[in-house]
Write a structure and sequence with these properties.
Number of strands: 12
Number of helices: 4
CATH topology of the largest domain: Helix Hairpins
Low-confidence stretches: 1-43, 315-330
Keywords: Coiled coil, Signal
Helix content: 55-70%
Oligomer: single chain
Organism: Fodinibacter luteus
Protein name: M23 family metallopeptidase
Order of helices and strands: HHHHEEEEEEEEEEEE
Distance between the termini: 25 Å
Structural class: alpha+beta
InterPro entries: Cell_wall_metabolism_enzyme, Dup_hybrid_motif, M23ase_b-sheet_dom
Pfam families: Peptidase_M23 (PF01551)
Strand content: 15-25%
């Protein structure tokens, strides 16, 4: 029997449940490439999304529960940051698209304002020219009116009386008619220009109102463009911060890997050592069983010889069955080692941090720290103490059961109660904890046949 010394270190605290991590991508930070986002997909069912995330979290916890709390926390934080990056990229793309649209709207508004101001300037020039023409026309009309007033309407008669011959009279009358026609045209043109002046004033007022509205629109468009650019800048800064955080977290994970791989190597070495010990004990158990079988056969032969010699008609020798140290049947030979739910089964899986396929060599039971751990069957404690990555560990040899040498191990215990000697089925041998490479309180329960790991469900 090999009994290892009691560990002097304090147990490691259990790490809380990590409620995020959406993939099993490795720790490499990589180059952050922002790509243009297409239209966002329609919103999915929140309940279905939550169930999906919960399943991913459960899987990640199962993948990482045989890892140190420090490395698990660093990797989970890295995965959390990675899960935020796509959303941050989408926000940045949307902000940049909004900023570009706002800039285009601002440019259009500026062009419209410039065109409105040009139209206003042109209308003002036309109004000035028309005002000048109206003023000049009014002056001509005033002069003509003054002349008519002075002549009291006798201009034509005076010209006729002062004529010396009929031809002169006719010429003067024609001249007077021409002058009157010109004056009439002047009056008509003045009326037209006055109407045009009124229309131009109304048009200019409308253009000035339009310019004021377009100026306000341009100012609003400029403000929106500035806000959109600010939002894009903030989104870019957030994305850059996440990228830097991701790189830092990846570096932290990489820094933990060397020591973790060393612990993993030590656990493999411990497994090899235990396998050799159990193989030797299996060979010894088989030799003892064979010796016992031969002795029993010899005893039976001697009994038969004596019976024949004494010519007794009845009598037979009874034979006993050699148990495996704890009793029980082939079906369900082992009892459940502790209460609590099964958090992880036996099997090969891909470790997201180590980036290797590895055997999860036992069955895990999760319950509050300090829950009693019991012997799954009667047997002899052959190892107890610090098992490195296994934490506080107890190994029980159950002897030969159905032709197989059976042993069980109890790992990550907070404390050990039984350090050696024989134990009975159901006897408390320790208390559940999170020592060694473990992210939270659980029992890592293993079964070995002839030194090789097998699925505990074969014996439970």
């Amino acid at each position: 029997m090999v009994i290892m010394g009691r560990p002097g270190r304090a147990p490691l605290p259990g790490a809380p449940r990590r409620a995020l991590a959406l993939g099993a991508a490795f720790l490499c930070a990589g180059a952050l490439a922002t790509t243009s986002a297409s239209a966002r997909p329609p919103a999915s069912d929140p309940g279905a999304e939550k169930r999906k995330v919960d399943a991913q979290v459960d899987q990640l916890e199962e993948d990482l529960h045989e890892t140190s709390a420090e490395l698990s926390a660093a990797y989970t934080a890295l995965q959390s940051t990675k899960s935020k990056l796509p959303g941050a990229r989408a926000v940045l793309d949307e902000a940049q698209a909004a900023a570009a649209a706002a800039d285009r709207a601002n440019a259009i508004a500026a062009q419209e304002l410039e065109a409105a101001r040009a139209s206003e300037d042109k209308a003002e020039a036309e109004l000035d020219a028309t005002t000048k023409e109206v003023a000049e026309g009014r002056q001509r009309v005033a002069q003509f009116a003054a002349q008519i007033y002075q002549e009291q309407g006798f201009g034509q008669l005076d010209m006729a009386l002062s004529s010396t011959d009929p031809q002169q009279f006719a010429d003067r009358i024609a001249l007077v008619d021409t002058v009157m026609d010109v004056q009439g045209e002047t009056m008509d043109r003045l009326a037209t220009e006055q109407a045009s002046l009124t229309a131009l004033e109304d048009h200019l007022s409308a253009l000035r109102a339009d310019s004021a509205a377009k100026k306000k629109k341009a100012e609003q468009a400029l403000a929106r463009a500035e806000q959109a650019r600010d939002a894009a800048a903030r989104a870019k800064a957030e994305l850059d911060a996440l990228a830097a955080q991701q790189a830092s977290q990846a570096e932290a994970v990489a820094g933990q890997l060397a020591s973790e791989k060393a612990k993993l190597a030590s656990m493999k070495a411990e497994q090899s050592r235990l396998k050799k010990v159990l193989a030797q004990r299996a060979a010894e158990a088989r030799r003892r069983a064979e010796a016992a079988r031969r002795a029993e056969a010899a005893r039976r032969a001697e009994a038969a010889r004596r019976a024949a010699a004494s010519q007794q008609s009845q009598g037979s020798s009874r034979s006993g069955s050699s148990g495996g140290g704890g009793g029980g049947s082939d079906d369900g030979y082992l009892s459940r080692p502790m209460s609590g739910r099964v958090s992880s089964e036996f099997g090969t899986r891909f470790h997201p941090v180590y980036q290797i396929w590895r055997l999860h060599s036992g069955r895990d039971y999760a319950a509050p720290c300090g829950t009693a751990v019991r012997a799954a069957a009667g047997g002899t404690i052959i190892m107890a103490g610090d098992g490195g990555g296994y934490g506080n560990r107890v190994v029980i040899d159950h002897g030969l059961v159905s032709g197989e040498h059976l042993a069980t191990t109890y790992n990550h215990l907070r404390s050990i109660r039984q350090w050696g000697g024989k134990v009975s089925r159901g006897e408390v041998i320790g208390y559940e904890g999170s020592t060694g490479t473990s992210t939270g309180c659980h029992l890592h329960f293993e079964t070995l046949e002839n030194g090789d790991f097998v699925d505990p469900r074969r014996w439970l």
